[in-house]
Design a protein that fits this description.
The chain is 0% helix and 54% strand. It has three domains: 2-62, SH3 type barrels (Roll), CATH 2.30.30; 65-125, OB fold (Dihydrolipoamide Acetyltransferase, E2P); 129-186, Nucleic acid-binding proteins (OB fold (Dihydrolipoamide Acetyltransferase, E2P), Beta Barrel). The chain contains no helices and 16 strands. The strands form three sheets. Strands 1-6-2-3-4-5 form a six-stranded antiparallel beta sheet, with no helix packed on it.
Length: 188
């Protein structure tokens, strides 16, 4: 049993007959009244995100998890298939367990959280950023360079990302996986 002081991003807890992963939290100490923790919880079974507030000192039922490195193999339309890098066993997960499946290319190494009680995979943590090639974007119009002007671009995984006007087809770009936003162009 843990309490609200143990809350951190990535912690898995049992709440309302389901397992949730904490994706955001904020400790609040108002000038008047007791302290509380405002959280955003993502269900590892359905992918649904809910907001919840815990009063300070509230006991939470944490789920013990292990992390393992898995390599993304392919998507068959319904399931995403992964291979454990240590023992080469394969698992398959529904899209709801993945945070940003549209930014994952084959061969990508991800971290999978596994429940130690029943060895079931709970969720997939992507690397902080991924490098993908731009496959389609409109050319930037000269003179159309207002501050922070962006245009949509499609990357090799099929995801759409807003990029600066100077990005062209064939460029490799770094994308922040948490927000799905352009970070920088990679020079080769």
């Amino acid at each position: 049993m843990a309490s609200t002081s143990d809350i951190r991003n990535g912690l898995c807890i049992r709440y309302n007959h389901d397992i949730y992963k904490i994706i955001e939290f904020l400790h609040v100490k108002p000038g008047k009244g007791p302290a509380f923790v405002r959280t955003k919880l993502k269900s590892v079974t359905t992918g649904k995100v809910i907001d919840n507030t815990f009063s300070a000192g509230h006991k939470i039922d944490d789920v013990r998890v292990e992390t393992h490195k898995f390599q993304y193999l392919y998507n068959d339309g319904e399931f995403y298939h992964f291979m454990n890098e240590a023992d080469y066993t394969q698992i398959r997960l529904l899209e709801a367990a993945l945070d940003r499946p549209d930014l994952m290319k084959e061969g990508e190494v991800v971290t999978v959280l596994i429940n130690t009680e029943d060895n079931m995979p709970l969720s997939v943590d992507m690397p902080a950023s991924v490098i993908l090639e731009v496959t389609h974007t409109e050319p930037g119009v000269k003179g159309n360079t207002a501050t922070n002007a962006t245009k949509p671009a499609t990357v090799e995984t099929g995801a759409s990302v807003n990029v600066p006007l100077f990005i062209n087809e064939g460029d490799k770009i770094k994308i922040e996986t948490e927000k799905g936003t352009y970070k920088e162009r990679i020079k080769e």
